Amino acid sequence: MFDRKKLDFFAASAAECTLAPDEAELVLAEWTAPGCSQDREPEFIAPLHVHRSDDEAWYVLEGTLAFRIGDETVEASAGGAVIAPRGKPHTYWNPRQEPARYLIIMTARIRALIDAIHATDKRDPESMRRLFERFDSELIHSP
Fold first, then answer.
1. Three-state DSSP class for residue 133
2. Mean pLDDT of the chain, nearest integer
């Protein structure tokens, strides 16, 4: 079943297509990150956070994404993939002016966290910290 709805995970725009059968533990979504101005700070698609029990992965279809995973910063261009293993703090952003289109592969628990973020109006740091905790994750830095 395809769920076509627009998501805006903090600074991000866009989930064009999500494949998430009810019985599956994995969710596959195609998202687009808009380009950023050359003279601006990165617009993080997700705040710096860690999933204690879940891995997360990205495959870049078009453009480039940059990732901070632990103490490392890497870029992946079209055809490149990145995995954030459970327990590693991570965030990501589009470092270029051109949009980036990518697949994000996440667990059902991470998808539930993203859905809960979109469902709440309480965006203060303490409310967000508690929300991440409910999904066995930790918010390290809120935008």
1. helix
2. 85
Q: Measured between alpha carbons, how far is residue 138 from residues 10, 50, 57, 84 in Å?
A: 16, 5, 18, 14
Nearest to 131 by CA among 143, 116, 118: 116
pLDDT band at 16 (very low <50, low <70, confident <90, very high): low
Q: Is the pLDDT of residue 70 over 60?
A: yes
Q: How far is CA 69 from CA 17, 20, 24, 75, in A?
A: 25, 25, 26, 11
State the DSSP H helix or E strand holding residue 134, giving kind and residue range, or none if neither: helix 125-134
pTM confidence score:
0.82
Q: Where are the alpha helices (DSSP H) in 72-107?
A: none
DSSP string of 26-75?
Answer: EEEEEEEE----TTS---EEEEEEEESS--EEEEEEESEEEEEETTEEEE
Q: What is the mean pLDDT of residues 64-75?
A: 96
CA dist., res. 108 & res. 25, Å (int): 5
